[in-house]
Amino acid sequence: MNCFLHVSLKYICYDDIYMGRVNVAILASGRGSNFKAILEEIKEGRCNAKINVLISDNPKAPAIAHARDNVIPVEIVEKSDFDSRAKMDLKIKEILDSHSVDLVVLAGYMLILKGKELLEAYKNKIINIHPALLPSFPGVDAQKQAFEYGVKVSGVTIHFVDSTLDAGPIIYQEAVDISECKSADEISEKILAVEHKAYAKVIDLFSKNKFRTQGRRVVKD
Ligand code: GRF
Predict the structure, then answer these.
(1) Given this model, what pLDDT does residue 221 score?
(2) Could you tell me the distance, in angstroms and rounded to a whole number, from the CA of residue 29 to the centre of ligand 1?
(3) Domains plus CATH for the chain?
(4) Confidence class of residue 2 from pLDDT cuts 50, 70 and 90?
(5) Active site annotation includes 6
(6) Most informative mutation of 33, 113, 156, 171 for ligand 1 (most atoms within 8 A of CB)
(7) Which DSSP symbol is given to 169?
(8) CA spacing 20 to 30 A to 77: which of 61, 101, 149, 203?
(9) Of 162, 160, 39, the residue nearest 103 (C-alpha)
(10) Helix (H) and strand (E) counts for the chain?
């Protein structure tokens, strides 16, 4: 193959790879196992997305190193650099806009998004994953709450993010049998394995415009 043809083919392939994909921003504060799982599913061709940027409020988050290893741009937006959460979220919105983001994926992001401009501009374009069947056990330590309450079935909820705490319109739920779990950690582990498949699946459906919202009901076409 001559040099010119080789370069042209590479160009065509690159364009082709990302055609029709949903441009995603990941927001993560910690280890980022969901981020890693989504990236893996993208690489395996099971999730029609491209991760344009990883945003973190925690410069020590292990998710950052994983993003850099995979040549994904990283933006650190720390709470301590702003005198209000509104200003912090405005900065996040500017970053999302500059990376042409279609879908914002919260993956272990430990802050509640509060900025009006951000929430309005990205209405029904921000999703979160919660390790329980909402509306049961919202907030932190959902697995511990489920363990202490003694429920036998918990699970995963993926929902749109609005100004409420874990109460935005529900997109997807999957039940997990936790009746044999002996601790909150065991519940976390069992639910996490389900999270890793479910999140990429929902992002893939989003890329194919499979969701419609009717009030707070999300229906799949
Ligand atoms: C997950 O359990 C998720 O449901 C919750 O925070 C945890 C994040 O884990 N929102 P990771 O950082 O993706 O490993």
Answers:
(1) 84
(2) 9
(3) 1-122 (3.40.50.170), 128-221 (3.40.50.170)
(4) very low
(5) no
(6) 33
(7) P
(8) 203
(9) 160
(10) 7, 9
